[in-house]
C-alpha cells in the first residue's frame, strides 16, 4: 500500500511538469455537494446521489464515490471546471463504475459538455460534446457508448463494444489522439481502437455509385443455364400418389352406409418429381455487374474530427430502474500514462471487493441456514403440540361405564 501510494505521488509530480490534468474528482470528502449541481429541469422526478463505498469495498474511505440511491429515477448532476481544448493534444476521459446492485436496466455513462451547459436545467436533450460509458438493459444491451457531437449532430460509434456487467468496480477510458485515432480501454485493457473517420459516420462516403452508370441490357449474370438439348424422358411423368396396392376393404364396410370404398393413397415409388433440364455453363456469362463508383462531390476531408474546442463540464444524465451504481475517479487529462497509472489500482480494488463480498455472502448463507433450521424446528414443535391435543381429545372420548350410574 505504501509503495503504490508513493508511486502515485511521484506520478503526480511528473505529471505536474509534463502533462495537464484538466479535472480530477475522487470524492474524498463532502465538498462535492458544493461543486456539483443537481438539475431542476421540470417534468422529471430526479433521484439523489449519496457518497459511499457501498456494501463491499477494498478501502472504505478511498473507494467512496457517488451512488444512485433511488429506484426508477432519472439522475442529472453536473459540475464545471476551467475550460480547455484538446487542440493538437491527446484527450483522455476516464472514470470508474461499480454496478453493485447487479443492474438490470440503466445507464452508467457520463456526458462531457462545453461551457454553455446550465447545470440546473440539465436533461436528456441538453447538447453535449461526448457521451461515454456503459449502458445495460436486459440481456440484449450491454455495451459501451462512445458518441461524439459533430456539426450539431450526435454520432454513435458503428462498432459494438461490450461493457462489464458484474458487480465490481471497473475503469472506463477513452483516448482521442490529434491524428484522428482513438482507443477505448476497460481496466487498462484495450477493447477497441481505430480511426474516427472509419468508425463514425461524421463525413459522407469518399466514393458513391456513379448515378450515370447503368447495367447494359445485354449483360448476362447467369453462371449456368438450362441445357437446350436436354429432353424429358418419355417415362418420366408418374403420379405423385397412387392407391395403396396392399389395402383391402374392411369386412364391416357397408357400401350403402359408408359409400363406395376406395383404397387410401400412398407415395408412388416411381414418382420422379417435376422434370427440369440439366444445367450447363452459360457461354454468355459476364459475371456479376458491379456499379462503378466515382468521387463523392459532397465529401470533404476533415483532419480536426478529434477536436473539442471547449470542454468545461461533466455530468451524469441517466435513468436507472434499480439504483446502486457508484461513480468515482473522474479524470480529464492529456497524458494517457498518468491515466493508466491511476486506473492500475483497479485490480487491488476488485480483489478487495471480492474478498469482502464473499465473506458477506458466506455470512448471509449461514444466516439463511440458521433461519431455515429455526423455522423447521418451530414447525416440528407446532406439529408435536397438535399431536398432543389430538391425544388429549381421544382420551376424553373414552367413557368409563362406572362414571355413569344414573341407570
In short:
This protein has about 400 residues and is α+β, with helices and mostly antiparallel strands. It contains six helices and 22 strands.
Explain the layout of strands and helices.
Layout: H1 2-18, E1 21-25, H2 32-35, E2 36-38, E3 49-52, E4 65-68, E5 73-84, E6 91-99, E7 105-107, E8 110-113, E9 130-137, E10 141-150, E11 153-156, E12 169-176, E13 181-186, E14 189-195, H3 196-199, E15 207-209, E16 224-226, E17 241-243, H4 255-258, E18 265-267, E19 279-281, E20 293-295, E21 311-320, E22 325-333, H5 336-343, H6 346-397
Antiparallel strand pairs: 1-22, 2-5, 3-4, 4-22, 5-21, 6-12, 6-22, 7-9, 8-9, 8-21, 9-10, 10-11, 12-13, 13-14, 15-20, 16-19, 17-18
Signal peptide: 1-19
Organism: Corethrella appendiculata
Biased composition (Basic and acidic residues): 207-251, 344-377, 395-407
What features would you highlight for this structure?
407 residues, alpha+beta, Jelly Rolls, eight-stranded antiparallel sheet, 22% helix, disordered C terminus
Text of the CATH class of one domain: Mainly Beta
The average pLDDT value, as a whole number, equals: 91
- Global geometry: flat
Tally of contiguous helical segments: 6
How many distinct beta strands?
22
Spell the H/E element sequence. HEHEEEEEEEEEEEEEHEEEHEEEEEHH
- Give the termini separation: 98 Å
Give the CATH architecture of one domain. Sandwich
How can the largest sheet be summarized? 8 strands, antiparallel
Secondary-structure-based class equals alpha+beta
Amino acid at each position: 500500500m505504501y509503495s503504490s501510494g508513493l508511486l502515485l505521488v511521484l506520478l503526480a509530480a511528473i505529471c505536474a511538469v509534463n502533462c495537464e490534468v484538466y479535472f480530477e474528482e475522487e470524492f474524498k470528502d463532502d465538498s462535492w455537494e458544493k461543486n456539483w449541481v443537481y438539475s431542476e429541469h421540470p417534468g422529471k422526478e430526479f433521484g439523489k446521489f449519496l457518497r459511499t463505498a457501498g456494501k463491499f469495498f477494498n478501502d472504505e474511505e478511498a473507494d467512496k464515490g457517488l451512488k444512485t440511491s433511488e429506484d426508477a429515477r432519472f439522475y442529472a448532476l453536473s459540475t464545471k471546471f476551467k475550460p480547455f481544448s484538446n487542440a493538437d493534444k491527446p484527450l483522455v476521459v476516464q472514470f470508474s463504475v461499480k454496478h453493485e446492485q447487479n443492474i438490470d436496466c440503466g445507464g452508467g455513462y457520463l456526458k462531457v459538455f462545453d461551457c454553455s451547459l446550465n447545470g440546473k436545467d440539465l436533461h436528456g436533450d441538453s447538447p453535449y460534446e461526448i457521451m461515454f460509458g456503459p449502458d445495460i438493459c436486459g440481456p440484449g444491451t450491454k455495451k459501451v457508448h462512445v458518441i461524439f457531437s459533430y456539426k450539431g449532430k450526435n454520432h454513435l460509434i458503428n462498432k459494438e463494444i461490450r461493457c462489464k456487467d458484474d458487480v465490481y468496480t471497473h475503469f472506463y477510458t477513452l483516448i482521442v489522439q490529434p491524428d484522428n485515432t482513438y482507443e477505448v480501454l476497460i481496466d487498462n485493457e484495450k477493447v477497441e481502437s481505430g480511426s474516427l473517420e472509419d468508425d463514425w459516420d461524421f463525413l459522407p462516403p469518399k466514393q458513391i455509385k456513379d448515378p450515370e452508370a447503368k447495367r447494359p441490357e445485354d449483360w448476362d449474370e447467369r453462371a449456368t443455364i438450362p441445357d437446350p438439348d436436354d429432353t424429358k424422358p418419355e417415362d418420366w411423368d408418374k403420379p405423385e400418389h397412387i392407391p395403396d396396392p396392399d389395402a383391402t376393404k374392411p369386412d364391416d364396410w357397408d357400401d350403402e352406409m359408408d359409400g363406395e370404398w376406395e383404397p387410401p393413397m400412398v407415395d408412388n415409388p416411381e414418382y420422379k418429381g417435376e422434370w427440369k433440364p440439366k444445367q450447363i455453363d452459360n457461354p454468355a456469362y459476364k459475371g456479376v455487374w458491379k456499379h462503378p463508383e466515382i468521387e463523392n462531390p459532397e465529401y470533404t476531408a476533415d483532419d480536426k474530427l478529434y477536436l473539442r474546442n471547449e470542454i468545461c463540464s461533466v455530468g451524469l444524465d441517466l435513468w436507472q430502474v434499480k439504483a446502486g451504481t457508484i461513480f468515482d475517479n473522474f479524470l480529464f487529462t492529456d497524458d494517457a500514462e498518468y491515466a493508466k497509472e491511476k486506473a492500475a489500482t483497479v485490480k487491488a480494488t476488485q480483489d478487495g471487493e471480492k474478498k469482502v463480498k464473499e465473506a458477506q455472502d458466506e455470512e448471509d448463507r449461514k444466516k439463511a441456514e440458521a433461519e431455515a433450521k429455526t423455522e423447521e424446528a418451530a414447525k416440528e414443535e407446532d406439529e408435536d403440540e397438535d399431536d398432543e391435543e389430538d391425544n388429549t381429545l381421544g382420551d376424553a372420548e373414552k367413557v368409563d361405564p362406572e362414571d355413569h350410574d344414573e341407570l
